[in-house]
Amino acid sequence: xxxxxxxxxxxxxxxxxxxxxxxxxxxxxxxxxxxxxxxxxxxxxxxxxxxxxxxxxxxxxxxxxxxxxxxxxxxxxxxxxxxxxxxxxxxxxxxxxxxxxxxxxxxxxxxxxxxxxxxxxxxxxxxxxxxxxxxxxxxxxxxxxxxxxxxxxxxxxxxxxxxxxxxxxxxxxxxxxxxxxxxxxxxxxxxxxxxxxxxxxxxxxxxxxxxxxxxxxxxxxxxxxxxxxxxxxxxxxxxxxxxxxxxxxxxxxxxxxxxxxxxxxxxxxxxxxxxxxxxxxxxxxxxxxxxxxxxxxxxxxxxxxxxxxxxxxxxxxxxxxxxxxxxxxxxxxxxxxxxxxxxxxxxxxxxxxxxxxxxxxxxxxxxxxxxxxxxxx
Length: 377
Fold this sequence. Notes:
The protein has helices spanning 16-28, 73-85, 95-105, 117-120, 127-138, 148-158, 184-190, 210-223, 238-247, 262-271, 286-293, 324-336, 338-355, 358-361, 363-372; strands spanning 6-10, 31-36, 51-54, 89-92, 110-112, 142-145, 165-167, 196-200, 227-232, 254-258, 274-277, 298-301, 316-319. By secondary structure, it is an alpha/beta fold.
């Protein structure tokens, strides 16, 4: 087991996904330094992290500046930290932020791990975004991503050599996410013991296309009056969505839970009958994998990375993005067919066990580190 490899892990520290990476790194025996330049409070409270260096930067206010929080202030501070601590591996997340200042630092070995939208959305916003992305990717010694489609986009954007890209989904904690988590208390609390329940666990942001799902629910509730919906999440579009629900008189059918702690999410999945994703763009969705491990069939959009997990008519239904009519049809079909839901459920549990185990998948990151830093133990 690696004991002494020193890792600089650059992140905003706002995501449960970061915490999952860091917990596994600590278990592996790495010496972890977390570097964050976000405006949020000091990130993480995880025993075993050697040092958390959180330097809050001023908000972006200069017209046309490029990520003012991260450059030049974050870049200069990072250069100092690299000189002081001399890590064995520089590991950077979000490509246009931490990936960019890490690439600019000239430090090696550098591992860049995109999160999804930084490859699928950001490079298409402007030529500047694309140049930032290309520069950051081309200066990485290795890149890891969570889907084959994301890998193809990385190559298309930067021409990065395929042999240095490793694809592995983060996977999930299958001790936590499984069919044994008891969701009956949630059904009872809501008075939904005899209802058919849909669930969505996405942030309320434009990229997730939630407005198209809500439009579909207008028709679904007409055809299946005993349907109910758990909206597990929060975000900048919450007021817009709650206003829509009131306007369409859907308050009886849709419950906004707010953000659900990851430790409690399995109970919500097991309280439901069908998982729904209306995403317009995505990498491998952990919420999808978690729902599959809990035995939920899915009705999801035709996002390429999602279609690496869901095959239409085999373990769920695929619907066109932004098509509320087709989504409504498929939701109605799956809600009316108990045998189909059961068949999809069994297949999803098997897929999750086989392909989405975080303990197994994390070892691919260990392989990357050891390839870049051989003999460091």
